[in-house]
Structures are given as C-alpha cells and as structure tokens.
From TrEMBL:
One of its GO terms (molecular function) is ligase activity. Pathway: Cell wall biogenesis; peptidoglycan biosynthesis. This is D-alanine--D-alanine ligase. Belongs to the D-alanine--D-alanine ligase family. Residues 106-305 form the ATP-grasp domain. The lineage of its organism: Bacteria, Bacillati, Bacillota, Negativicutes, Veillonellales. The gene is ddl. HAMAP family: Dala_Dala_lig. It comes from the Bacteria. It comes from Megasphaera massiliensis. PANTHER family: D-ALANINE--D-ALANINE LIGASE (PTHR23132), D-ALANINE--D-ALANINE LIGASE B (PTHR23132:SF23). Its EC number is 6.3.2.4. PROSITE patterns: ATP_GRASP, DALA_DALA_LIGASE_1.
Length: 312
C-alpha cells in the first residue's frame, strides 16, 4: 500500500486464546519497532464481540495481526477484516484456518506428497478406549499427542508409556475437539521462515532442557537458535524447498514459519506451519531475518507494507 505513514495502524493483541500473553509480547515488540520507523500505531486488545465496532470507532486503516491462536491465527480476524475492507497482515481466511488446524494441514501435506511424520487423527466424540486401542495399533512408543488447534506446544504430550495415553488424550482434548497422534521423530529440530516467496536461513533449535516446549520457547536463554544451521548445503536447500512448498500449498502471504524435525538418518519431516509466527525478543523469525541482514524494524515494516484484502 502506498503512503502507509499517513495511515492509522492497529496492532491487535491478546484476546481469550491460551497464547494471549505471548501475543501481547509479540505486539509490544512490533508496535515499538513500527513507531521507531515513524508509523502511527495503536495497540488494541482483542475483545471479540466489540472488535469491529472498535476498529470503526478508532478509524483504523490497517490491522497488523499480532494474535496467536484462536481468532487471530484461525481465519476469524482475517474474515472480519475482509468484510470490513480493512487491509491486514499475513495470510487470508483459508490459509489461516488450514495452517491452524493440524488435522487439516497434515492431511494437506500428505496429499501433496510433502514429507510429514506418520499420523492419525481422532475426535472428542469418539470412545477413548477405541482411540487408545487404535493408537497402540498404529504407533510404537514414544508417540506424540497434539491438540489440533494450538500453538506454542500447548496441548502437546510426548507419551513414553502406554499408561500415559489416557491422560495425554485428556490434555489434548482440553484445547480442541480433534487431536493428532504422530510418530515421534527422534532427531534434531529446525525451522524455516518464508516471505515473498523467499526462504530465510534455516535455524536449528537446541534446548538446554532437552525439549522445545512452552517454557523453552519463551524463557530467554533456554533454547539456543543456531542460524544458519550447521548442516550441509544439500540439506539446507531441501529444507528451504520444503518450506516454500508448504507456504505455496497453504496459499500463504506475509511471513510464515515452517517447523521440521530430522530423523536419525537426517531426513527432514514437516511438523506444521505457523501463519502468525512469534515476534518476541526470543522468537525465531527475527533471528533468521537478522542472519540475512534484515533488522527487526525492517522486518516489521516489510510485513506491514504487504497488508491487503482479497486474499484466499
């Protein structure tokens, strides 16, 4: 959009999501970066049933989506902005909904021939004993149980003994009506951000706790981001190509982040796509941007300048 400096821009944060606090941190960092660049920024806390009225009343011209999880990452905010004709950052309704739902995104990856960990999915109205029996039939332990609609590793449990399965299902079903059981990939963790059809440098994630959970993700110094990852040029290209394929398949725009694991042989598997990746001080996308010479302020500005309506 032309002359964004004259526009009234809302950074929308918070809301009822389990990731609201992370969203507020992301939003605060983005608002500060854009103010430094000279933009007129207002941070708005999401109150779902009054958001449309608030945007109208405050004469907001552009929405910078800093919401994680429900309402911001699932296509709901995107649909509202489309109906109101307000340009917004990131991908559209369909890309957001598919990216947010692990059942749908993993089925899409599999259908498109994109390497992803073997998986099955289950619904809350199914008999728990039948789910446990099927998981035991399909997978060896450890197995990963994930809520289908959460980020930041919330509602994700690595099950190492069969007697833990029931509690893992209860935990995952707390957050959504469907869950994914996924083969445990026992290798290293990586992530690749994509923007403008360009894959950023690959990051390897090494956690000092041995697992990359909510605590490791947001507690400074717990997880180490090695960027660029110390891997071969061939594996780097393979991961970047995988990330680009996922980005295109999901009809993404703006910046998204594709998370991967390698198995013991070093083959990469896509875990998920994050269509509104974290942008806090400890976040991955700003790290990858810095590694290719793009400052946090410039990254935020680039995302803002791509705000639009009429997306898929």
């Amino acid at each position: 959009m032309e002359d964004m400096k004259g526009k009234h821009i809302a950074v929308v944060v918070g809301g009822p999501s389990t990731e609201a606090e992370v969203s507020r941190r992301t939003g605060a960092a983005i608002a500060e970066a854009l103010k430094k660049k000279g933009y007129a920024i207002e941070t708005i806390e999401l109150v779902p049933h009054t958001l449309a009225a608030t945007l109208k009343e405050k004469k907001i011209d552009v929405v910078f989506n800093a919401l994680h999880g429900r309402y911001g990452e699932d296509g709901v905010l995107q649909g509202l902005c489309e109906m109101m004709g307000i340009p917004y950052t990131g991908p559209g309704v369909m890309a957001s909904a598919v990216g947010m739902n692990k059942v749908m995104s993993k089925a899409a990856f599999k259908g498109a021939g994109i390497a992803t960990a073997p998986f099955s999915y289950y619904f809350a109205n199914q008999d728990r004993k039948a789910i446990i029996a099927d998981i035991e039939k399909q997978f060896s332990l450890p197995v990963v149980i994930k809520s289908s609609g959460q980020g930041s590793s919330i509602g994700t449990v690595i099950v190492t003994a069969r007697e833990e399965l029931e509690a893992a299902l209860e935990e995952a079903f707390k957050y959504s009506t469907s869950i994914v059981a996924e083969a445990f990939i026992d290798g290293d963790e990586f992530t690749v951000a994509v923007m403008d059809g360009l894959a950023f440098p690959v990051i390897q994630i090494v956690s000092s706790t041995g697992k990359y959970d909510f605590y490791s993700k947001y507690e400074p110094g717990i997880a180490k981001h090695i960027c660029p990852a110390p891997i071969s040029p061939a594996l780097t290209k393979e991961m970047q190509d995988l990330a680009l394929n996922v980005f295109r398949l999901c009809h993404c725009s703006g910046v998204s982040r594709v998370d991967m694991m390698t198995d013991k042989e070093g083959h990469p598997f896509v875990l998920e796509i994050n269509t509104v990746p974290g942008m806090t001080a400890t976040s991955l996308v700003p790290d990858a941007a810095r590694a290719m010479g793009l400052s946090f302020e410039d990254l935020c500005e680039k995302i803002l300048l791509e705000a639009s309506v009429g997306k898929f």
